[in-house]
Amino acid sequence: MSGKRKGTGKPYFDHRIGASFFKKTKEWHHIERLVDRENDLYIEIITDPKTGEILKKRKEPLSEHQGHGSAKKKSTKTTSWGFHQGSDTMANKKAKLELTWIGKENRPKLEPRILIEDPEKSYHATQRHSENDIFDNRLIFGDNLLALKALEPEFAGKIKCIYIDPPYNTGNAFEHYDDGLEHSIWLSLMRDRLLLMRSLLHPEGFICCHIDDSEGHYLKILMDEIFGRSNYLTTIYVQVRYPAKTLKQDMDFHKEIEQIHIFRKKYGAKPNLSVRDLSFDKYIYYVDETGEGKEKVLGGKRAQIFSKDNYKIRKSDPSENGLKEIWASGTILDGNSSGRFFRDYLTGRAKEDGLGAMYKVYGIGDDKFEYRYFTGPKRANATKGKYYQGVPISQLENINTESTSPIENFYDLAGAFGNCRHEGGVEFRSGKKPESLLETIVKHFSRPGDWVLDSFAGSGTTGAVAHKMLRNWILVELRDHCHTHCLPRLKKVIEGEDETGITASVEWQGGGGFRYYHLGPSLIVEDEWGNPVINSEFNAAMLAEAMCKLEGFEYAPSEDVYWIHGKNTETDFLYVTTQFMSKQMLIKISDEVGPERSLLICCSAFRCDPSQFPNLTIKKIPKAVLKKCEWGHDDYSLEIENLPKAPPEPEEPAEDKPVKPRRKFGKDKAVHPTLFDMGGD
What we know:
By secondary structure, the chain is an alpha+beta fold.
């Protein structure tokens, strides 16, 4: 587009706001670019993001500016912070409101690693405690982005509840977490993880993201984009400390509240509502009329008025004949018929009826009695009164029926946060969450037997609570406290030795177990000459499992058929071998597969025309998978060094220089054998 806006007479501008990293100053600066097509001008303004000071401003004819000529197609790509609303985009009916940031377009090509169990670290109880004992839980040591990718083939669509408590990006260096990241890298790395978590969630599952206000609002918009704004349910606010408990004396604002954003996977997912107490525990009051009451009509209803000496209210055991005491004040005066009756007809009657009078009013209430008792204020300056309500008829008719109420979205857990340091027998400063918080999350968003996932395991609170509440769980942790905190804590839970947290309230006695896994190595490495080869750490079984993940097959090796290592459907299989496949071998396998089934063969080499085998697909490895992933990348953790590469400086374009290819000579180096040199399957 160029010229003037239709119907306005005003010149049309291209307007871009972005950021660039300058090598000289080693700092990020804001760059504002303006294109005035009517006056043939290109304008660039560079400012300091901290002070707003203009560092550089230049103008030049648009026709002379490389990359912004009028013949160029206008780009709507931006690396700005904010909502993407370019004019071309807004003209497109399919455009969406989204958060943009530097490097958003960069997506890692993750390698689906295999998970290797370490039997020495896996743990289970020596005996069964009940039929509900759960043993197939998972504790995974390794980068959580790679671990989530590794879980995808087995757990896609199976996780009912995800709770994560990621680093808050506050700039504070916690003892167990590096918690200071640039906004853009934090959002990029959270986006990558949330996309995988969405894949893992059950269609009726929920994700609960714990955060503070440093990134909480950006995270909410990011989750709107990934899960859909219509799937946002609520934000739970948690008081984590009292005003007197300050973090730093030099802070201008005291952070007492943290947030948990709750999203569902799809429409129709329903959380478990709070259960109302339907017992008679609160119905403990009984009224004895010891004298005559004075008859009167109040508000059109028959009433008897008793002086304070003509009645007695006593407490006794709860029963269906008991009454519940309710103060007639505040919102109660407007909220129900009893409150309104007190407000309209009993307020101010102390002068006429005396202090402490009791009123027996007929034809009001929803209980089995034909009347309701009210009492007026007992002191001269008081205005508040009370009324006594019987058990509602609906409750009496449905004594065994469960009644529910909405889930609260505010919890005062400051005391629990202050006292949770030693829960589970492991101390974890600055970031540990109390078991009572996780009990609330697990209770409302999963049921016994469901899978619960926490990929920022920390000290293992989520796993401990899920285990005590009879849920299956998966924990992922990269740091050393996977071994110093999670392992010993979960062992105590299994042995019934953990008496802290929710143990007493859920009557936990011990039992069950878990399996410990670590991420397998990268499948592809470079040899001494820089050539990509299969990692020598892989044996035949590991290679077969890795290829199943890469090709989207379930790893299911057959004990009877040697060429079945994985399956996609009941008639589609995968075979992995390090052998050279001759024509005779392929003919034999093709005959065994038959016309009703299909087989993908991954081998080191073959020599024939594969089109002559309609039931076979043949691929060479590693060549067939080289472009599928980022090989050898072991750390996608939330670290500042993972910041996307800075764009080139606009005012100092670098000259393109041919780069000499490096040759690696390995004449005197020992060559390590790879799996292809070992022969056989």
